[in-house]
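hey so i finally got around to running both of the ones u sent me last week. sorry it took forever, my laptop kept dying halfway thru and i had to restart like 3 times lol. anyway pasting them below in the order u listed, first the sequence line then the structure token line for each. didnt double check formatting much so if smth looks off just lmk and ill redo it

first one:
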Amino acid sequence: MRNPYRQLEKNIGYRFRRTRHLETALTHRSYRYESPEIDGDNQRLEFLGDAALGLTAAAHLFAKFPDCEEGDLTRMRSRITNTKKLAHVAEAVGLGAFIRLGRGEQQSGGHLRASTLGDALEAVIGAAYVDGGMKAVTRIFDKLFVPALEAMDVEHWRDNPKGSLQEFAQRRWKLSPRYHILREEGPAHSRHFVVEVLINGKTLGTGEGSSKREAEMAAALEAHRHLLNLEHATPPEPGHTD
């Protein structure tokens, strides 16, 4: 029998061994109310998928940002698992076209509603867990959510450049950045600082600002531009410093 969900499976990065789980995940409660022969809807799978997605996201963030505090990790997890983000991901994989809705829900545009899309995506993740365990959930997460996390990594650098550079250097090379004031000039009420940041004795960035902290942040951002290819960056060769 032809699998009607083949394209969706391709889009989410996981092929179900038992498509009945996926079918249930795509069954809205309004469809069940209008179809007495249907055994269940996607609400229980949504509950399971919410938990599985939350755990997978938490584990990924815990490994990716070893120096982040609990509050920062919680905020980042929320940014990739909230209803708006889930609906955006669901739209990107064309999930709405596969959701089975009751007539009234269909006519009112339920397949476009953010809450319906987000709930269905969580249900699909729950179905993947039932079908293939956490490995299946991780495959979907890697396909649909990791790209957003990579983009968030860039935002994280902008928000906290010094902390992010420290985190990256420690995680990658077990080294810590060192900041050195190159120049400090101007009158007391209007100072100007020029700072360089070094890793392993090599200058990776310089920055300027009206305070030491501002100049250090600018230097860290410039260092980030030298380390854009984060996954393939190699330790800086030792350099000469005064």
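and the second one:
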Amino acid sequence: MQEDCFERPICSSPDTWFDVVTRVANDNNKIQKRTKNVSRCLNLGSYNYLGFAAFDEYCSPRTIECLKIFSASTCSTRVDGGTTTIHTELEEHVAKFVGKPAAIVFGMGYVTNSAVLPVLIGEGGLIISDSLNHNSIVNGARGSGATIRVFQHNMEGIYSMEGELCKLSEIVAICKKYKAYVYVDEAHSIGAVGKTGKGVCELLGIDTANVDIMMGTFTKSFGSCGGYIAGSKELIEYLKYTCPAHVYAISISPPAAQQIISAIKVLLGEDGSKRGAQKIAHLRENSNFFRSELQKMGFDVLGDYDSPVMPIMLYNIAKLPAFSRECLKHNVAVVVVAFPATPLLLARARICISAAHSKEDLIKALEVRACS
């Protein structure tokens, strides 16, 4: 039984080191019972790419002040009383950051894909979708009623389970040839790649005007929650009137929105420091160091250089529990992934690197890997 390897309770912020609650089971791991004991573990599982999930000298005070003014929730949808000045400011900052005329934000990243796609295309339309696209895209496409044709690989900015960058320039060229629209999911790439963190377009030198719809989330690089769609002003106005996630769902929490605004300002240097550029550079250095060291040790590591997502292939699902438990025993917390999130015989451990990791943190993790 592998239940102890999943849904491990955490009782601290998802910083580089966090507290994992110890659980016990007396029935072959069928029922896990929490204890009062915790283990301080190196966090290689959270999407805290730029380190904003922990207390930040610029972001955190502003988020706390926003909580005092706006409270934790708007208790309303965007079309009723759920649009605050914080929400409109966030949308302006997102549009500016990604290089599109306008943007709309949602309270959940998954819903950003699954609720937006059905209002962009319907019966009679054609969706050409990557075989490894995230489940939110798959469900959104199915819900649209459009015809779906799947191709083998490469359309998310960075693949959540593969750590690979998409071949965007080739895809843009094909879409121009056949007059198709380009929709890019940057959930794992926005903030994490590119010289100033603006994602795959910046990294690959592609004009954002060539990408019709840019989707991303705030849960990875910005230490918050929610997602966004950026595109033309006409597109965003259309979504405001038609997308159920905007019309019927509670708006993103104002303090969460303020956290994103503050993080974007840090990345753009508008906080008066160079911390944003330093974070992005350090993330790239950490990612490339860790990837190259794993490869030297003989691990089969998927993904591209500069990507902070590193799947270590274990293949056989029976290896997952031993790998996960051995790491935890040495105070290193990792995520293990298997079917249905991956194909049955492609089980893996997925490592997420952070700019907040020190060289010593990464060396410790490598030493544990060598023993696993």
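quick thing i noticed on the 2nd:
The chain has two domains: 3-43+276-371, 59-267.
anyway thats it, ttyl
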